[in-house]
């Protein structure tokens, strides 16, 4: 079965590189001026296999299985313009975020634009550079249809990339989106010099609020405790490879951060704040990240806001 990957960023390119070892793969990007060099500047040091076709024509991408690896805030606009091309196929979201315009995750955006499609989510702890280098990685493949989940699990697993499957689409998707928000807070704590103990508190209390919101939105708590939730939270809150963590570091230290870097947690924090208000759920860490990212809250006040909350049961 053929595979197409929409979005030639770091993650889409990494997935295309490893999947090209077992099936015909086409990688679509809007700007592929680099394609002749067989190396994507977003994934430096990785040579694209000769079998991988790179294109800027969406008509080349009408494969059985299409991986959507665009940033979450871009996906809705892309689907509004191009979604009809892909309806009826197996569409796998690889984005980790909540769409600010609709306050929904990528799977709902795909389902709305492509009502005949089989919608799945690929998520979990993984840096593009690790996957592309063939390092061992375990991810979650979520699809409400158990047979499709099993089929996609086999199609998209490789020797080093091991997929676990679940039918809990909201759980897998929300874990991946919400952990980015908490990673910004963890980075800010380290950047501000609050230390590793403070980071551990943020990760743990952050996980508690991830579970609160996700279960209220229909996720299963055990999914949040798996690769797509806790697993990815741990990775993203502890590694300098993470852009969300590094963005938090810069916020905490009062440094500028490279404009144009994909930092999904910043917009998702604002979406989470809006959802939490709508649903009456307490999300103090996420609210703080939204305030920091919007410039409404200064870093020197952030700690007081958390420490001055009423004392309560864990
Ligand atoms: N990089 C990773 O390690 C990694 C790992 C797991 C998941 N993800 C997720 O994958 C998604 C994509 O991240 P990335 O790291 O590949 O980002 P990236 O910054 O490397 O690339 C983003 C890509 O999106 C393209 N793009 C931006 N706006 C567009 C538009 N309007 N139309 C078409 N293309 C557009 C850019 O040209 C670029 O190729 C994110 O949701 C991220 O959370 C990334
Ligand atoms: O670089 P980040 O922060 O977008 O994280 C990449 C992946 O989501 C880690 O699993």
Automatic annotation (TrEMBL):
Residues 168-303 form the Glycerol-3-phosphate dehydrogenase NAD-dependent C-terminal domain. It catalyses: sn-glycerol 3-phosphate + NADP(+) = dihydroxyacetone phosphate + NADPH + H(+); sn-glycerol 3-phosphate + NAD(+) = dihydroxyacetone phosphate + NADH + H(+). The active site is at 179 (proton acceptor). The keyword NADP applies. Pathway: Membrane lipid metabolism; glycerophospholipid metabolism. Keywords: Cytoplasm, Lipid biosynthesis, Lipid metabolism, NAD, NADP, Nucleotide-binding, Oxidoreductase, Phospholipid biosynthesis, Phospholipid metabolism. NADPH binds at residues 11, 30, 96, 128, 243, 264. Sn-glycerol 3-phosphate binds at residues 96, 124, 126, 179, 232, 242-244. The keyword Cytoplasm applies. It holds the Pfam family NAD_Gly3P_dh_C. HAMAP family: NAD_Glyc3P_dehydrog (MF_00394). This is Glycerol-3-phosphate dehydrogenase [NAD(P)+]. The lineage of its organism: Bacteria, Pseudomonadati, Pseudomonadota, Alphaproteobacteria, Rhodobacterales. The gene is gpsA.
